[in-house]
Design a protein that fits this description.
- The chain is mainly β.
- The protein is built from one helix and 16 strands.
- Helix content is 2%, strand content 53%.
- A six-stranded antiparallel beta sheet has the order 1-6-2-3-4-5, with no helix packed on it. Strands 9-8-7-10-11 form a five-stranded antiparallel beta sheet.
- Strand 7 and strand 8 form a beta hairpin.
- The N and C termini lie far apart (56 Å).
Length: 187
């Protein structure tokens, strides 16, 4: 069993029967009192951050997470189906874990999935993805003075606000975290 002296930023501990990532650790020794560790923890399930004070030498339970490359196969209602690149096992992950970034996933794309005891905890979708524009309304001449944009539909079915010069068939770069247009891909 590990003790509080083993606490470091980035490790995962089991605290109050939930997995938490250590955000920051401070060792304090006030006056003539006992030393303690002031620790900021982020809950891996809901993302909430809490602060807790651990006594020096208190036992903690450090957890190990497995990380692996998984290939996106298809979307099934609200769930996403992936295949482990090494074992070819299929894994179904709920849309809550993937979040809104899932609407920018293309079939065959490789992402990293963190799991604990074979249960998926989080999925790391690439921050920027290249997507082909499937539907784009024509840009009206003269609307460019205000930096106007239009809504285009990309190959995954998601809609993105893009500049007026984007046409059907163009490949654009999109921020998968916010859904914002970044640039037109260079040919």
């Amino acid at each position: 069993m590990a003790t509080t002296s083993d606490l470091k930023n980035g490790i995962i501990i089991n605290f109050n029967n939930d997995l938490h990532s250590v955000v920051s650790v401070e060792h304090r020794t006030p006056g003539n009192l006992r030393a303690f560790f002031q620790v900021k923890l982020r809950n891996l399930k809901n993302g909430k951050t809490i602060e807790n004070r651990f006594r020096s030498g208190e036992e903690i339970q450090i957890e190990r997470l497995e990380s692996g490359d998984f290939q996106f196969l298809y979307k099934d209602n609200e769930d996403y189906v992936f295949m482990d690149s090494e074992t070819y096992d299929q894994v179904t992950i709920s849309g809550d874990i993937i979040g809104k970034s899932g609407s920018y996933l293309k079939e065959g794309e490789i992402i990293q999935i963190l799991s604990h005891n074979s249960k998926p905890l989080s999925a790391e979708v690439p921050p920027h993805v290249y997507l082909k524009v499937v539907t784009a309304p024509p840009g009206v001449k003269g609307d460019t003075a205000t930096g106007a944009s239009k809504q285009v539909v990309v190959e995954t079915g998601a809609t993105v606000n893009a500049p007026l010069f984007i046409n059907e068939g163009d490949v654009i770069r999109v921020d998968s975290r916010t859904g914002e247009y970044i640039e037109r891909a260079k040919a």
